[in-house]
């Protein structure tokens, strides 16, 4: 048994500046996995990852430096770098800083843009982006709706409060989104219309995207090996420089009146491959397999919540799990606070066909057990995501919004 991560006490895991997450609500049984140990290919940690991805499809990933000398990346160069990259606002988001920081974290520059994941850096970027997100939602609605790109057939940009639906009856949601495309920020596609206040933060968004994507590729590489797929198969479907639906999302939900509360974001499975989620207030709930009780995911400081999406289910013939989740008003003393979350959605490249991959006996066996299973249609990643995302918008086709959860426990 490892005890390093477990020796942090509760105070280290809490957001002390926020009202505490209540003790008396059901919480979901997410395993806590250490990035530092995964990146050293620790076999025990890899089996925890495998178990979490097969059984629940959700886990916590500890992104902090583990406090032992051998684990801590404290070379003076890296420490000094972090300082030198902060601008006068204390934010690490200058354009020149990006290049310098990339140079430091990149050990083996395999593909254009790619970096090695650095957990503390990702945590810092997430914290900085929480501030940026607040300023986006503070803009007047008339300004924000200029960036609702639904009518152009895009799921990037703004989605206003109540502009999504949470069920087949068309009940309106209770949150706003702002979605930023990876390809826009990396210069792989034309820039989309966006509020001017985001301009100075494109460097920060780029860093967050690179770090999140590198994290996802590390996880995909480890899962690839567990699945006995040909080397690099899963990561190669998720190249940072391929055109894809990868996006950063801020989710923003003001507190709901005490006598009129409803689900803010309706139950769903994520559409893509791997989701990296930063939460501070509670409200996210999962429905664990074989239960009918929604359980809260308690936010933990220094950790991301990672969950798998439907693409991973389809590519592995259902070996890996994408679990249903939803967002409700924050619980207990947190109920009167505005909730915001920050998400990175990694998705296979647009042209990847979402069907079981060849080259793994494990996947072949699973496919044989369930021959008509998940390959019932030939659909690309782009079509799948567009259909599901727009199906959940008002006026969309709800019957097309569903995912692989249908017919499954
Ligand atoms: O806000 C959250 O905690 C989760 C958001 C979510 O599930 C999503 O945007 O798909
Ligand atoms: Fe989700």
TrEMBL record:
Residues 69-103 are annotated as: Disordered. Residues 244-348 form the Fe2OG dioxygenase domain. SUPFAM superfamilies: Clavaminate synthase-like. GO terms for biological process: small molecule biosynthetic process. It comes from the Eukaryota. InterPro entries: DIOX_N, IPNS-like_FE2OG_OXY, IPNS-like_sf, Iron_ascorbate_oxido_reductase, Oxoglu/Fe-dep_dioxygenase_dom. It comes from Aureobasidium uvarum. This is Fe2OG dioxygenase domain-containing protein. Pfam families: 2OG-FeII_Oxy, DIOX_N.
């Amino acid at each position: 048994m490892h005890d390093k991560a477990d020796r942090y006490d509760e105070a280290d895991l809490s957001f002390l500046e926020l009202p505490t997450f209540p003790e008396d609500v059901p919480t979901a049984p997410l395993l806590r996995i250490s990035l530092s140990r995964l990146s050293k290919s620790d076999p025990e940690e890899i089996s925890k990852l495998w178990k979490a991805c097969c059984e629940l499809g959700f886990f916590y990933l500890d992104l902090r430096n583990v406090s032992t000398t051998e684990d801590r990346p404290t070379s003076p160069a890296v420490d000094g770098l972090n300082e030198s990259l902060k601008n006068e606002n204390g934010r690490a988001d200058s354009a020149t800083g990006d290049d310098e920081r990339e140079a430091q974290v990149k050990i083996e520059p395999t593909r254009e843009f790619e970096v090695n994941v650095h957990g503390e850096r990702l945590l810092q970027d997430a914290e900085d982006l929480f501030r940026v997100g607040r300023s986006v939602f503070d803009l007047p609605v008339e300004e924000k709706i200029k960036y609702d790109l639904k009518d152009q057939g895009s799921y990037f940009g703004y989605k206003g409060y109540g502009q999504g639906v949470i069920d087949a009856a068309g009940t309106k949601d209770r949150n706003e989104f702002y979605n930023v495309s990876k390809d826009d920020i990396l210069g792989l596609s034309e820039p989309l219309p966006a509020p001017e206040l985001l301009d100075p933060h494109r460097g920060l968004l780029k860093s967050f995207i690179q770090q999140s994507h590198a994290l996802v590729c590390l996880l995909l590489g480890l899962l690839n090996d567990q699945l006995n797929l040909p080397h690099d198969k899963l990561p190669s479907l998720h190249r940072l420089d391929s055109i894809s639906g990868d996006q950063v999302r801020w989710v923003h939900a003001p507190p709901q009146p005490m006598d009129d509360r409803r689900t803010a974001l309706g139950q769903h499975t994520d559409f893509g491959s791997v989701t990296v989620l930063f939460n501070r207030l509670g409200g996210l709930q999962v429905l664990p397999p074989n239960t009918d009780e929604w359980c809260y995911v308690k936010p933990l400081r220094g950790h991301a919540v990672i969950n798998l999406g439907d693409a991973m289910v389809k590519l592995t013939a259902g070996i890996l799990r994408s679990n249903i989740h939803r967002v409700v008003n924050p619980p207990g003393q947190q109920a009167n606070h505005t909730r915001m979350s920050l998400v990175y959605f990694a998705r296979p490249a647009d042209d990847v066909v979402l069907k079981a991959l060849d080259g793994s006996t494990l996947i072949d066996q699973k496919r044989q057990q369930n021959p008509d299973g998940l390959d019932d249609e030939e659909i690309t990643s782009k079509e799948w995501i567009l259909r599901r995302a727009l199906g959940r918008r008002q006026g969309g086709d709800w019957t097309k919004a569903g995912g692989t959860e249908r017919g499954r426990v």
